[in-house]
UniProtKB/TrEMBL annotation:
It holds the Pfam family ARMT1-like_dom. This is Damage-control phosphatase ARMT1-like metal-binding domain-containing protein. InterPro entries: ARMT-1-like_metal-bd_sf, ARMT1, ARMT1-like_metal-bd. Transmembrane segments: none annotated. The keyword Manganese applies. It comes from the Bacteria. Keywords: Hydrolase, Manganese, Metal-binding.
């Protein structure tokens, strides 16, 4: 199990380095009133790094307010609050638990669940909005016009790759990315690429039957290529229906919510050329139900997908394929554990209720399904550069179990 406070670990650095920056960014993002600012400061204090770099003690994880501000209490009780909250230090719990409780507490601090005037105001909206208005998004949408020149197979692959590398545009990841860790495109590589198997699997579905589910990760520059990929699958008949699973509330900085889906569809539709046509089709598909949005609460659980509840298991079990986007979904898919990187992907995901494909850039320590020579080469490079290949965002995988 990856723990939150292991000295010198990436997980610990997320708590000690990334979370304080994020809290400041949230406080600066909206003109929050003094009580919200005080609540954010209190969360920063409670989660601050212990004085010694190897200590895992400190204030225990604090609770949420009672009553209306904690409408999902029952869920969190089921997910393990009693084991950790009020009992364990932030630096002495599973990494997944610490991060998820942090984001849930952050939402409580800004009044997301209300009641009150800040109910439903996304604390991450300012950064999400800025990204959507940026030049990169405009350029990426304009690049769709070039797809006509490609052969059908190349077009498939270009759109799959766009969705894959879109995962690198994660706003949380960029909170602490610096010159030493900013992904270097030239060195980027897909370490395991099962995309031919994914395309074969989709092609093998009887015509007009395929249901493609996509468990989304980040909004903006990641969700746009995800939506474009789903449109492509619908438009070319490889999917009869598509289901887009997003978070029920703002989470992990830039994770997509329903509001973000609508913003992205609007942004795609406002673009000229091919992108604009795609935006029109996406609106139609949402309107006629060929593209459905789901917001299952389990997508905000601090647990691996092996623990998914029966209704979600049944829904994903009916998918022709489920595409899981991003780093956090990958950690939850294989369990947030220190797997030897050469462990089999199929074995680690055998419990998953149906065929699946993980599209993920590597931004945390967990990985499976790599060959020994690749791992040896990457380890040697990391020793030379001092930057971990597992967390730099330079590498990616497309792994399937069909
Ligand atoms: O948006 P993604 O790809 O799920 O990445 C989430 C990021 O947040 C983390 O949970 C740490 O903040 C890492 O796993 C990863 O860098």
């Amino acid at each position: 199990m990856v723990m939150s406070g292991t000295p010198g670990s990436f997980a610990r650095s997320v708590l000690t380095d990334r979370h304080p920056v994020l809290l400041r960014q949230v406080a600066d993002g909206h003109p929050y009133p003094p009580d919200v600012r005080r609540a954010l400061d209190a969360l920063a204090e409670e989660t601050a790094a212990p004085a010694a770099a190897d200590a895992t003690d400190g204030p225990s994880m604090g609770p949420l307010p009672t009553g209306a501000a904690f409408p999902d209490r029952e869920l969190w009780e089921r997910w393990g609050v009693a084991h950790y909250v009020g009992r364990k230090s932030w630096y002495d719990v599973p990494f997944l638990w610490a991060e998820n409780w942090f984001y849930r507490r952050l939402l409580a601090a800004v009044g997301w669940f209300g009641p009150g005037p800040w109910q439903g105001v996304d604390p991450f909206a300012p950064v999400k909005r800025a990204e959507l208005a940026g030049a990169e998004v405009a350029a990426e949408l304009a690049a769709l016009d070039g797809l006509d020149a490609l052969a059908p197979g190349e077009r498939d692959q270009a759109l799959l790759r766009a969705a894959l590398w879109g995962n690198r545009a994660d706003l949380g990841f960029r909170l602490t990315a610096d010159a030493g860790t900013t992904p270097d495109s030239a060195a980027s590589a897909v370490l395991a690429d099962d995309s031919p198997a994914l395309w074969r699997h989709l092609a093998a579905a009887p015509p007009g039957t395929a249901a493609v589910h996509l468990i989304a990760d980040n909004a903006g520059r990641e969700l746009i290529p995800d939506l474009i990929l789903l449109d492509h699958l619908l438009n070319t008949g490889r999917a009869a229906t598509a289901v887009l699973h997003v978070k029920p509330y703002p989470y992990f900085v830039s994770d997509a919510t329903t509001a973000d889906v609508l913003e992205c569809v609007r942004r795609i539709g406002r673009a000229p050329g091919r992108a604009g046509e795609t935006g029109v089709r996406l609106r139609e598909a949402l309107g006629d139900g060929r593209l459905a949005i789901r917001t299952h609460p389990f997508f905000c659980a601090p647990l691996p997908y092996a623990a998914m509840p029966g209704d979600l298991r049944a829904e994903l079990g009916g998918a022709t394929v489920t595409l899981l986007k991003g780093d956090l979904n990958y950690r939850r898919l294989v369990g947030d554990r220190w797997w030897p990187p050469t462990s089999g992907f199929a074995a680690a995901t055998a419990y998953f209720p149906g065929p699946l494909a993980a599209l993920r850039t590597l931004k945390s320590d967990v990985v499976v399904g790599l060959d020994a020579a690749t791992v040896a080469g990457l380890d040697a490079d990391s020793r030379t550069t001092g930057t971990s290949w597992r967390t730099s965002g330079t590498y990616a995988v497309v792994q399937t179990r069909t």
